[in-house]
Amino acid sequence: MPTVATISKEIHKPHLEVIGGCPLAGEISISGAKNSSLVLMTASLLTDEAIQLNNIPDLTDINGMVAILLALGVEIQQAKNTYQFQAKRLLNSQPPYELVNGLRASFFCIGPLLGRLGHAKIPLPGGCRIGARPVSEHIKGLKALGAVVSVEHGVVQASVPGLSKRLKGASIIFDCPSVGATETILMASVLAKGTTTIENAAQEPEIQDLANLLNQMGACISGAGGPTITIEGVERLHGCNYTVIPDRIEAGTFLIAAAITRSTLQISSVIPEHLNAVLQKLRDCGCSIETKGKKIKIIPNQINAIDITTQPFPGFPTDLQAPFLALLTTAKGTSVVTEKIYENRMQHVAELQRMGASIRLQGNTAIVEGVPHLSAAPVVGRDLRSTAAMVLAGLTAKGISKVEGLNHLDRGYTEFEKKLNSVGSQIRRYP
Ligand code: EPZ
């Protein structure tokens, strides 16, 4: 017969306890961008010289990518948020399955490995809770550059035929502006022979960050950040010292935390123009926003209902859909939130309804009728951003909420509750 201690141990799940109703005040400094750091780290595979990356955030996904690069033979040194990577001699072109299986970003290795070695073998990243996450555009682009690509037993095998082992520049038009596919082709084409153009490229700031790094390494890329990117292939790349851009999604999450608690807050170490669509929506729903250099100050007033549709950059980012929807549950009036990027990114709706939100879900459209307040409840975050959204909901709910899903949260936010507690929230972690 198991003892009570055994049962309680089995039932205990790491969670945060969030005390609702605490106003926020002060300033939060934003960390480096997760979705830039992960891809910039893989760019180190493109040269045998050392590259130094500064402002890398402290996240479990970063640790996962470090393990993958070490397994490929990259030498890595770290001093807090500064890393040095050097791929002098690569051991192989197939990272261990158990390392890549849990980290979608591991697929970013395929482009640089093909460009550097002429072959790569990477398991399909597979889907996740928010959607199928296909890589058909990535594969289409690699084939256009001359790679032979096959997908068998869940593994993508790519190789460059011929003695030169060198890809050839090509003109590529994406069916959709995929961030990962654009980054994959950027890294595969920088060492190709000839010119590559990418049309219908993703325009996210992370694309520009990658192009800026590659150009500092000696690449010749123009147009990044726009819909058409041109890459003139070069013979080799060299080392450099580069600083990763701030995390616009972390920044947006904390701005929404201020709005949901009706608190004036300042965030620093950000690039405001990376958040234009989010800042506009915060203004539209009633907040005053002041930007000065790398700081943004938000002064919420009454929060009014608005409509949001997620789009590729420069539109409203899908990664802030869940946090913003949490804000709209206590707005005055009825809002319509439509998720256009992923097929299954509304899992936070059921959890918000448990907290008293009045939401009607029709496919990927949520009709949100504002209520005076939410009520604390035990809730579960189902993916990275919905877990953050549940914490934000807990900040405003009456009572103490219990939020599970820390394994998701810690993938994408550095010291999330610590940063919020530094400006007045009362959140306790039960690991
Ligand atoms: C990146 O994912 C980010 N992840 C995601 O952030 C982000 O939500 C997404 O870009 C969109 O901005 C990283 O950078 C590590 P996509 P990625 O390829 O590259 C469809 C977070 O919370 N598509 O632009 O996988 C796809 O199904 C994460 O930080 C195809 O149809 O995004 C999806 O619906 C979540 N065919 C849409 O495009 C393809 O071949 C966006 O995918 C490729 C993609």
Please render the helix and strand layout as text.
Layout: H1 4-11, E1 15-19, E2 27-29, H2 34-42, E3 51-54, H3 60-72, E4 75-79, E5 82-86, H4 97-100, H5 110-117, E6 119-123, H6 136-144, E7 148-152, E8 155-159, E9 171-173, H7 179-189, E10 195-199, H8 205-216, E11 220-222, E12 228-232, E13 240-243, H9 248-260, E14 265-268, H10 276-284, E15 287-292, E16 295-300, E17 307-309, H11 321-328, E18 334-338, H12 348-354, E19 358-362, E20 365-369, E21 378-380, H13 384-396, E22 400-404, H14 406-412, H15 416-421, E23 426-430
Parallel strand pairs: 2-14, 3-13, 9-10, 17-18, 21-22
Antiparallel strand pairs: 1-22, 1-23, 3-5, 4-5, 6-8, 7-8, 10-12, 11-12, 14-16, 15-16, 18-20, 19-20
Helix pairs in contact: 2-3, 2-8, 5-7, 6-7, 7-8, 9-11, 9-13, 11-13, 13-14
What does this protein structure show overall?
With 431 residues, this protein is an alpha+beta fold. The protein has 15 helices and 23 strands. The strands form six sheets. The chain has a four-stranded mixed sheet with strand order 21-22-1-23. It has a four-stranded mixed sheet with strand order 2-14-16-15, covered by helices on one side. The protein starts with a helix and ends with a strand. The model has no long low-confidence stretch (mean pLDDT 95). Ligand EPZ is lined by residues 35, 38, 105, 131-138, 176, 178-181, 202, 204, 318-319, 341-342, 384-385, 412.
